Amino acid sequence: MQRNIHWMAPAMGTVKINIDGAFRASTGTAGIGVLCRNNKGDFLGSLRKTIQSDSPFMSECIALKEALLHRGKFLGSPVVIETDCKYCIS
């Protein structure tokens, strides 16, 4: 089943940070990504890292931590963080 997923812009003046993590059980490593854009979709910054992790959930949580650490770069602007990991934010 193929899904079409489209980026949805945040409110005017808001920065949107999308995060993701991918885990490889055989090596205990994961890749995480953080992508920041404004409401027009303009690129504001990104981060990618290879990390040690125990699970896909932990990989997503570490990506969230990185996003929270880097949101200070956007002082004065509201920030929305989006992830596909429901348990990471609930």
TrEMBL record:
Which GO-annotated molecular functions does the record name? nucleic acid binding; RNA-DNA hybrid ribonuclease activity
Kindly list any coiled-coil regions of this protein.
none
Q: Which domain of life is it from?
A: Eukaryota
Which InterPro entries does the entry mention?
RNase_H-like_dom_plant, RNase_H-like_EbsB-rel, RNaseH-like_sf, RNaseH_domain, RNaseH_sf
What range(s) does the RNase H type-1 domain occupy?
11-90
Could you tell me which SUPFAM superfamilies the record lists for this protein? Ribonuclease H-like
In terms of PANTHER family, this protein maps to: BNAC02G40300D PROTEIN (PTHR47074), REVERSE TRANSCRIPTASE-LIKE PROTEIN (PTHR47074:SF11)
Protein name, entry field:
RNase H type-1 domain-containing protein
Give the taxonomic lineage as stored in the record. Eukaryota, Viridiplantae, Streptophyta, Embryophyta, Tracheophyta
